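User: Fold this; tokens only.

Assistant: Input:
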Amino acid sequence: MKIAIFGIGAIGGYIAGRLTNAGEEVSLISRGETLNVIRNSGLTIHNENKNYTVTPKHITDDPEEIGIVDTIIICVKADAVEIASEMIKPLINKNTIIVQTQNGLTASQKIGQILGKEKVLEGICHFGAQVISPGIVRGMANSPKLTIAETNNDKTQRLLSLQSTLNNAGFNAVIPESFQVDQWAKLMAVSALGSIGAITRSNSPIWRQIPSVVEMWIKNMEETRDVAKSLNIDVPYQEIQDRIDNLPQGVGSTSMHRDIADGKPSEIEHQIGSIVRIAKENNVTIPVNSFIYNALLPLEKLARGEISA
């Protein structure tokens, strides 16, 4: 399969490394130091079992150098999806599929508006990865889970073909009965972890020692589940219970938390911000989410230059 991956950060780099190592024809679209390192030295993956370096078919900042591909996986942050969608037009013919991997709820819709909704497959990454340095990525799981789906939840041949390709590269590629349930479960989890971390300025091993903060984290998830219910999406409470059970072992922070802590623009509007807006539209009361969102908003607007210090 000819695959292009747009955005070679932690997630994009890890997906690219595994697929290239499995023998797929993978091209990378990147920029800056990451592009130069991979062009000169390859893409290096540090895994729990082994380390390896791969050489992609192409590494470029110009998609026109790659040509038509079968599959494009977009691994940029949610704010950059529209720019990425415009840039990948030279890679696309009538059979090309585009897989979104962004947190939040709107990426596939934005891609579809630019490139055609019939080309888009949904994706959710359930694994962690870390950029050690440009061109060197550490994976956090032996069998990283990826959820993939058609937006209407049909099990099409193109979906099954992508599942086979991903599984061959060592992923646990799962096709759910309802992508929308999985999407809200992921949003519920990542938004709660990121927003609690950002407002307490600490990772979970620190704030989980304080029962009142754990209660706030749980309430945050319960509220998000209520918002999903207002859209007739029923996220099982077991999704919350599983995260409660795993909290003592977690070492978690999220990119949203880290970006806010570092004074950078974050994905707050695509995570807790979208939850607050949908709750308001559907008359759902969510005091914890609303308080955290508004408490973090000044830092976000400062980072984006929308207000002054």
